[in-house]
Design goal:
The chain has 273 residues and is α/β, with parallel strands linked by helices. Helix content is 45%, strand content 12%. It has a five-stranded mixed sheet with strand order 3-4-5-6-7. Strands 2-1-8 form a three-stranded mixed sheet, with no helix packed on it.
Length: 273
Amino acid sequence: MFVDFHSHSTFSDGTFTPKELVKMAKDKNLQMFSITDHDNIDGQQEAFSAATSFGVDYIAGVEISCEYPTMLDMLGYGYSLGNKYLTETLEELKKYRISRNVMMIERLNSLGIEITLEEVAAQAGGDVIGRPHFARVMQNKGYVNTKEDAFEKYLGDDKPGYIRKKRLTPQAAIELITLAGGVAVLAHPKYLNQDYTRFENLVKHLKEWGLWGMEVFYSKNSYSENVFFEEIALKYELFITAGSDYHGANSIDVSLGMNVDTEKIIKTVQYFR
């Protein structure tokens, strides 16, 4: 079954609009699709409108960054777009993101990287500013050779030009999604970098807090990781999802769509239908 429950548009750090992504999903004959922009749902109305026009089976999505020692993101699906608690919480995160961009410009300037917020905003083309936009401006002005170089030297986590996002706890993210009428799914668990015992213990707590599913199949997973995550998901009776984490030109090594054995994903697809 060809599906994709994890992608990003120009409303976060992707390079295609929601409409363009939905059209791609149609062209690729995806049987279910979701756009999961970081900490915002601003592109969902456009996505739903395009899905209706193109005849794509679309699910409302979001990816919420969580406070945790390693990368932990929570995907949310099927929530109510008009839920006040969800929209207000995400708006608070957006306001912090704007002030964070200013602080990152100041930090980079202090390191001798003479770029402006206006230049970064122009690179973003009116869309939500993310670190890839900083990287492209730095590359264009000759401070780094490649986008990857910018992250390695300045913009990556704990690098000198980086300022941490304001994040929800995993429990708060699950509760937020659930209160909005949606279901919470642990994103790309490989990036947690935990051994079997620690990971299982984390999943046990997340399940107690209301975790609904796990992104077992992920574009960057190895075969052994797929097997491992599937084992844990089944043990804790979690729904299984599959996601590419497609960012368009910002993820040139990733294509839209995940081909998964029908028997492994059909329960999830049937739930949303």
